[in-house]
Amino acid sequence: MLAISDIHGEIKKFERLLELVQYNKDQDQLLLLGDFVDRGPHSRAVLDKVIQLQSDGAIALIGNHEKMMIDAFCGDPLNLKRWYYNGGIKTLQNYNFRSSSNSFCSSVKLSFSLKEPDF
């Protein structure tokens, strides 16, 4: 079992870590513990990598930054502000966000299922 969390848009560091631990999809169960987006420069690339890893059998759980991102586009303007100030601006920039939340939502690949842990 390999567990990784708090990637925060750092694709190069994430890929390097996978190399260092010699991750092998056929031998290892990879558990990704959320916080894939925000702060770092490559949130979109990290999400693409998470999607690819999920298709190879990894389990991805939603982190508080993904939750903030989802909540940001669900009505309450305070949620958008909260996400923006917690690093969401970097994620928005990765998706060439300009002015419409619809353009962002349509460009984000939300087809992969992040799982909220059952406590």
Automatic annotation (TrEMBL):
It holds the Pfam family Metallophos. It comes from the Bacteria. Gene3D superfamilies: 3.60.21.10. Residues 2-89 form the Calcineurin-like phosphoesterase domain. This is Fructose-1,6-bisphosphatase.
